[in-house]
Amino acid sequence: MTAPASHPAPAIPQASLSALLPQRPTPMRVSLAFLEHRVNVWLRFGQPAREIVLDRWRRVAVFAPGAVCCRVKWIGNDYGTALWQFMVLQAPRPFDGMQRVAGVAPGARILLRADGEPQVKAALAVIDAIEVLGIDPGAVAVTYWRTVGNRLAARQPLPVYTAERHAAYLARGALS
Length: 176
Known about the structure:
8 strands, globular, five-stranded antiparallel β-barrel
C-alpha cells in the first residue's frame, strides 16, 4: 500500500520572506576627521559602541540604536572659518524615521542642528551648563534637545536644563 500523495507547499517569493522577518538593528556610523587648519569633525559627547580607525586623519564612531551623540564640524580655508555645524543625533531604531546626514550612515534622527559660529557657541554653552550639573549630555531628554534646536532657529532664549527636569525625565522612564 502506498501513502497518499501530499500537496506541495505553496512557494513563497524570497522578497516576501525578508519582509516577514524582523529588521536587524543597524548601527549608526559617524565619520570623524581632523586635518590641521582645514577640517575638524569631532564628537562633543556620546559613547560609541566601538571606534574604527581608518588612518591618521579619519575614524568612524559606531553607535547602537537609540544612542545619542553630538557631532561638531568645523571647516576652514585660507581666509578663516568656512563652516561651523553642530548636530545632536540619535541613532535610529528599527522602523524609526531618519534623516540623511552627510558623514552619517545610514542616517540619524536630528534632534538639534545649529549652523554658524554664534549658534554653535550657544549650543556648546548649553552642553557646558549641563555638564556642570554632573549630568551626561547623552542622557538628557530628547525633547529638550529638540526644544533647544527650535529656540535657536527662532532666535529665542534657550531653555535651562535643571537637575529637577532631568529627575522628572528619568522618573517617566526616559521615554521621550
